[in-house]
Write a structure and sequence with these properties.
Elements: E1 9-13, H1 18-33, E2 37-42, H2 44-47, E3 57-60, H3 71-95, E4 99-102, H4 109-118, E5 122-126, H5 133-138, E6 144-147, H6 157-162, E7 164-165, H7 172-175, E8 189-193, H8 200-212, H9 216-221, E9 222-227, H10 233-242, E10 246-250, H11 256-262, E11 265-268, H12 272-281, E12 285-287, H13 297-308, E13 311-313, H14 321-332, H15 335-347, H16 353-364
Parallel strand pairs: 1-2, 1-4, 2-3, 4-5, 5-6, 6-7, 8-9, 8-11, 9-10, 11-12, 12-13
Helix pairs in contact: 1-16, 3-4, 8-10, 8-14, 12-15
Length: 366
């Protein structure tokens, strides 16, 4: 267990998915390196991702979300969040945090609402290029707003004007990739395929078939590592085996930083963490934004790399096996272009995002 220190205390509120918790963890580590103490406020779902979160204490707060057009669900969510606010206020009275930092998603609401009701300094960080519902609700009331992308769509103009672009905090092992030069392929070509937690079926099933369409000589040089849904693993292995392609298939890669660092090309979704990690690592990519993502946030995230020249974007509406096969062949047979894309991707990376966000937190903390 982390021992309590004498430094100021920050409550970091995050949960729901790793996309919220991983940046929160990176901030926590940056603050602790500066002598801060950190407490994590999350919900039951967030606790599943928080096993390695460096907090001296974890506060479990009641929280819930709802679907649009579901009035009964809204009432239930409101009751759950109110319960979480009361729980947070009790905890804050005991802890007396110098600042409360939220990372979006409904699990952050109770902690931030409690902090606002107590008049405590507050910061929200928006990971996506489109501001999420919870952050939109809070943004005009908090002390400071930080964001990952230069654009902040769906935000109130006054909020967007005062938002500080700090980037998306990444894990130390990803941060270390910023110091490694991109080495274009010569003989072996390493292709990394990630799926994302939502809408992973499309990539799990389409990518092996697209790779199988590549010319024989190109397939012979390929080494594929693919994150695949468990139910798609056997069929993916069969397709790669039939195509005589060296492939490693797994539902999850624990050493993702090492695999990302070695990859010549990455294919995946365009969640905020993925896009920012690709930029920090300086990797060329083919991005497939999740079509059903709320407010097209993945499409907007992908624009950061696409407009810089670091990624090709393949919208789901036009994506076929043939389209993906052509995109792969075009890039994998052009090392010089991959190298240019890698440089373009790195040009928009913010490897010091955790430090930048820690600066914002310290500036407003009491």
């Amino acid at each position: 267990m982390i021992q309590q220190g004498k430094g100021r205390l920050a409550v970091v509120a995050a949960g729901g998915t790793g996309g919220h918790l991983f940046p929160a963890q990176a901030l926590a580590e940056a603050l602790m390196a500066r002598g801060w103490r950190v407490v994590l406020a999350t919900d039951e779902r967030g606790a599943a991702y928080a096993g390695s979160f460096p907090a001296e204490e974890r506060i479990a707060l009641s929280a819930a979300t709802y679907r649009s057009g579901d009035p009964l669900g809204m009432v239930r969510a409101g009751v759950a969040i109110l319960r979480g606010v009361l729980q947070a206020r009790v905890a804050f009275k005991r802890l007396n945090p110098a600042v409360v930092v939220g990372f979006g998603g409904y699990p952050s609401l109770p902690a931030l609402l409690a902090a606002l009701s107590d008049g405590r300094p507050t910061v929200i960080h928006e990971q996506n290029a489109v501001m999420g519902r919870a952050n939109r609700f809070l943004a005009s009331h908090v002390t400071a707003v930080a964001c990952a992308f230069p654009t902040l769509q769906k935000a109130d103009p006054k909020v967007a004007a005062r938002a500080q672009v700090v980037g998306n905090p990444v894990r130390p092992e990803i941060r270390a990739l910023a110091d490694l030069p991109y080495e274009p392929p010569t003989d072996r070509i390493r292709l990394l395929i990630t799926g994302g937690s939502q809408g992973a079926r499309l990539l799990s099933e389409l990518l092996p078939r697209a790779v199988a369409r590549l010319p024989d000589d190109l397939r012979a040089r390929l080494s594929v590592q693919q994150q695949t849904r468990k139910e798609s693993m056997d069929s993916a292995r069969a397709v790669y085996r039939e195509a005589l392609v060296e492939a490693e298939i797994a539902p999850f890669f624990r050493d993702m930083a090492g695999r990302l660092g070695a990859a010549h090309l990455v294919v995946g979704r365009s969640g905020a963490s993925t896009v920012c990690e690709l930029a920090v690592a300086g990797k060329p990519a083919i991005l497939v934004p999740l079509k059903i993502a709320l407010d097209d946030d993945q499409g907007q995230n992908a624009r950061l790399l696409a407009e810089a020249g670091g990624a090709e974007v393949a919208p789901e509406d036009v994506l076929t096996v043939e389209v993906m096969a052509k995109a792969l062949e075009t890039l994998l047979t052009n090392p010089a272009r991959l190298e240019r894309m890698a440089a373009a991707s790195r040009s928009v990376g913010r490897p010091d995002a955790a430090e930048r966000l820690a600066d914002v937190v310290e500036a407003i903390a009491r």
